[in-house]
Design goal:
There is one protein chain. It is built from seven helices and twelve strands. It is α/β, with parallel strands linked by helices and 294 residues long. It has a single domain, classed as Metallo-dependent phosphatases (Purple Acid Phosphatase, chain A, domain 2), CATH 3.60.21. The strands form two sheets. It has a six-stranded mixed β-sheet. A six-stranded mixed β-sheet has the order 5-6-7-8-10-9. The protein binds fe (ii) ion. Fe (ii) ion (FE2) is lined by residues 94, 116-117, 201, 239.
Amino acid sequence: MSNSSDGLDRRSFLGLAATIGVATAGYGMAESTRSWPEQVSFSFAVIADPHCAEGPRQGMELLGSAVDRLLRCFQAMEELPPDKKPDFVLIAGDIHPEALAPHLDEIHIPIHAVAGNHEGSKKSRGLLRSLFPDDFGVGDNVHDYYSFEHKGVKFIGLCDAGAGGDHVGQFSSELIKPAGQCDWFEEELGMSGKRKVVFAHIPPALDGGDHNMHMGRNDSRWFVKTVKSTPPEMLFFGHLHHATEAYSIGEAQAFNLRSCCWNFQNTPVGFMLVQVTQEGMETQEIITGKVHVQ
Ligand SMILES: [Fe+2]
């Protein structure tokens, strides 16, 4: 950050965070009606649309560049009490990996990312994969969708951003490696006895219609049907750049998250914190910046 000509230096950044502080907004506990093996409590965070290559934005000049705004999220996490500090962060796409790469050594909380439409070229997709090889694999064994387990909970990262930066989501594309994501997801969700969380960039169209900024018609219909028949506990999406929207897909709790970089209608930026307990998953938004309109 201190290397950035259009950003804030470290001292200014820390001072700003101390001055402005953070605000929170809770969505309450999504209690599970299902029974699980004994759960060790932990927290994780979800960030959407950091758009790291973008510079300062009108009305948000004091918050610095997009990278500054992303790093501010991680600083807010570091300042949380130990029982709330996230074990890791999910980033739900539109990352601009070329601008994140020089700052990764400033981040000390593990990241699990998925691609957005801004990672829609071979070059940007390849760079994103190379930044997180433990999740995406390497060489001939790359996979844009993956799952991992943490303290008994399965996290499923999907790739619904195809080639060319299309704003409509799709699960099959020459840029999504390997082919077969839908079959894989059905198998992952179908595994019984595990708590599950799903994250992806582009949200489904709940009415199964043909809409821009959502998964395509057929992908939406298949996705909603699959989630209803074998529900995870929670799903997180980005892409829309508006105030966070909470909704249900069958038994599952879903969120279309605000961006941590910028949002339409001067909506504040921030991220989601999730506390996992035996009883369920409790979500809380942490607001890290507001727009000041003259
Ligand atoms: Fe997007």
